[in-house]
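It would be a great kindness if you could assist me with a short task in structural biology. The matter concerns a single protein, recorded as an amino acid sequence and a row of backbone structure tokens. Kindly check, if you would, that the fold set down in the tokens agrees with what the sequence suggests. Thank you for your consideration; the sequence and its tokens are set out here:
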Amino acid sequence: MPITRTKCCRRALLALGLLATTYSHAITICTTIATPTVFGVYDTLYASPVLINSTITVACTVTLAALNPIPYTISLSTSGTSNTMARAMAGPLGSLLQYNLFTSASYATVWGNGTAGTQTVAGSVTPLSLASLVQQNHTVYGRIPALQTVRVGVYLDSITVTVDY
């Protein structure tokens, strides 16, 4: 009887804290960890954008005899604005601080779910032996455009990280 891989997907929150999740299918056990994206203090008079990086880690361990590469795709959800191309953090009295998350340091491609001009990020892990843990890190590039007029206060947003394999 052949071993078949079932499609699985796991979600983790990015931006509000560290959240680890574990999922499995017929031949592997995988964990996804998304570190928070914390932009820090935003100065409305500063003429340069605020740039910050965070990391999404996908780690897998083979539990059965198949040591094949494990491909996956990472997508990021929309924000509270329901628009991946124009994400915004919510602040005091309905104030919104525009930002976005990108696939590279060029800040040219919005990391989303593959629709409306956004892209997902593909990767794979190849176990070296049974019970070996193999992980792949992916950098998330965050950017807040400069010179936005917003109220003083705390701004938050939640993004869901989905890993399909």
Notes: The chain has one domain: 9-158.
